[in-house]
Amino acid sequence: MQKTIAKLADGRELLYFDRDGSPPRADVPDPRPLDPVESRPELRLDAATGDWVAVAAHRQDRTHRPPTDACPLCPSRDGRPTEIPAADYEVAVFENRFPSLAGAAGRCEVVCFTPDHHAGFADLTPERVRLVLDAWTERTAELSARPGAAQVYVFENRGAEIGVTLAHPHGQIYALPYVPPRTAKMTVAAAAHRAATGRNLFEDLLTEARGAGERLVTAGEHWTAFVPYAARWPYEVHVHPHRRVPDLTALTEAERAEFPHLYLDLLRRFDRLFGLAEPTPYISAWHQAPVRGGGELALHLELFTVRRAAGKLKYLAGTEAGMEAFMNDVAPETAARRLREAL
Length: 343
Hints:
By secondary structure, the protein is an alpha+beta fold. The protein has helices spanning 126-144, 181-197, 201-212, 253-272, 318-323, 332-341; strands at 2-7, 13-18, 42-45, 52-55, 91-95, 107-112, 151-158, 170-176, 216-219, 223-226, 235-241, 282-287, 300-305, 307-309, 312-313.
């Protein structure tokens, strides 16, 4: 992988990631007359729960579902400058102009997977997915080393139903200055499991899913995708490497080589699940151990859709939005079977 560092007109960092052997990338300046970014997100502690809340009022002005010919994530062409000055790219990463976190309180980056506006992640080649994986890994390493970074969160939101404001295929990376609630809960659960059994929680979850089979979706030599026993979403799949590691930087070459094939197969199953012409909306999230104190946690990817049936979405009910008490309309065993059958 080759990394090229550039700067946007307002001083934000832009990174190009190209496959090894690609021609050296020329420095293309950003011609836009941009004012410096003056976002000042604020972190506030909810004293009732102990959770941190980011207040980022400047995000009200962010770009919202522009027409295709005004997409800010496409390459700059025909005199139309965008967030990516180059006329073409493979994978590009840049600092978000409208970040939820910034400065000493973290960092938010945008990851563009392809210059093709009309593609989706499932349309990528295994070679491109591998490059994206390498970019995710490089950013995890660099952001984890930032002063004050507590956890690096890599994710993709796809589809208007999820609330995506830019249709171009892209994801995001957050350097969080605190350990978020879900990670904190998993840390407590893993510690309790270790104390009760002497074993690692995530290793046991993977062993159980692979042994039972009814919640298994697909598996390879190094990775397994399964529906969790207590899935919160109608169609929710967790993808684990067979060897427990804390984060993306610890994967072996063999694990990196297999992941693109299994992940593309899984995404394409999601798109075939409902028999619809439009792609399935989803959230795909890498759960990595915190920078400090996450020795019992395990790297894994959680993929889920808010669609529960053709033409029907899963909305958070009052118990879920108000009390964080999830109630699933689809049995996890049924969801796994339907995904296995979505060939």
